[in-house]
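Quick one: structure tokens for this chain, please?
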Amino acid sequence: MEFQYNDKRHMATGRTPFKLNFERHPWKGNLVAQMEFPRIEEFLTGLQRSWEKATKLMEEAQKNMKKQFNKKRRNP
């Protein structure tokens, strides 16, 4: 179940938890596997960009949820 959850796109970020944590999707037993070995600096830079983008998207989703909630809220 954990693997299945981590391999699904999150609605707010548009990315999977695997992609955000490892900057790639997990191997699922495909016969053709791509073997790329990026330099560590490129990997870390890409990972940092992914986290920044996810953070920005989560904040935007949070603002949208707050806006929707406050539409029906009345002041006492």
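The first helix runs from residue 2 to 6.
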